[in-house]
Q: What sequence folds into this?
């Protein structure tokens, strides 16, 4: 007998502008009909302006389930990310930056992440000061993610990022920009905790799915990618996560993600 199931809706890269009033209202209403919680993987606004965040906050009024988000690079564009986060938090969104929250029994660890590349081609902290600073930022984001994981005691954990932790889900983008789409340094803490799944955005032309070295599923939920791939469906995905094992006891060692394309059934 299966344990309780939580339906997690995920999307990214809304790029809300000052002219987006009404653009997301029906989308958030559909999310509330299809899922128990929502996670948004960054680039909530287009230029990181408080005015854009205010528009999105009004759109979020249609959402009837708890939600968490991380900021993306676009949300930092204008140097007013603190104001953006404050406006969205006041609208009921849990905005995470190295923090964690629990929604419907699922732990959400969130961080924006950063670039630097993947595997043997990852940028190293050698040479010019600017290169060292770039790598230092990627390392800091990975440490923040690990700290967020450490705060959680839930049987199921979701990693919520903007940048990708693996190369697979950015493939399809130009090779030249891979180093700016994610960092395998983010994969390291994911491998040290019982993470059920990872969601990210940022790579609009990437791939839908991949896996870490430890076989944790990673999903690119960028709205432009989902819109192209599932043209007849709303641009979000839904994943079902069992909170307990068949005996009813929580099991942190073997996370179960049911339905790799549950969106087909619940968001059509």
A:
């Amino acid at each position: 007998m299966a344990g309780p199931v939580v339906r997690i809706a995920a999307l990214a890269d809304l790029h809300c502008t000052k002219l987006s009033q009404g653009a997301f209202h029906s989308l958030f209403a559909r999310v509330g009909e299809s899922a128990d919680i929502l996670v948004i993987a960054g680039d909530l606004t287009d230029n990181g302006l408080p005015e854009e965040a205010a528009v999105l906050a009004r759109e979020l009024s249609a959402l009837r389930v708890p939600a968490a988000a991380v900021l993306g690079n676009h949300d930092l564009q204008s140097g007013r990310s603190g104001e953006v986060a404050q406006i969205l938090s006041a609208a009921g969104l849990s905005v995470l930056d190295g923090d964690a929250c629990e929604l419907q029994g699922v732990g959400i660890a969130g961080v924006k992440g950063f670039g630097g590349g993947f595997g043997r081609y990852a940028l190293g902290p050698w040479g010019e000061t600017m290169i060292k600073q770039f790598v230092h930022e990627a390392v800091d984001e990975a440490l923040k993610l690990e700290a967020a994981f450490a705060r959680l005691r839930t049987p199921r954990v979701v990693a919520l990022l903007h940048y990708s932790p693996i190369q697979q889900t950015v493939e399809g983008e130009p090779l030249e920009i891979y180093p700016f789409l994610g960092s395998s340094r983010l994969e390291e803490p994911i491998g040290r905790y019982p993470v059920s799944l990872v969601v990210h955005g940022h790579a609009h032309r990437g791939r839908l799915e991949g896996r870490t070295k430890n076989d944790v599923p990673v999903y690119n939920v960028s709205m432009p990618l989902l819109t192209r791939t599932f043209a007849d469906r709303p641009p979000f995905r839904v994943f079902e996560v069992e909170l307990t094992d068949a005996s009813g006891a929580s099991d942190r060692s073997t996370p179960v993600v049911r339905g790799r394309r549950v969106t087909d059934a619940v968001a059509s």
Remarks:
- Residues 129-150 form the longest helix (22 residues).
- The radius of gyration is 17 Å.
- The mean pLDDT is 91.
- Helices lie at 25-34, 50-59, 81-90, 129-150, 187-190, 223-229, 263-266.
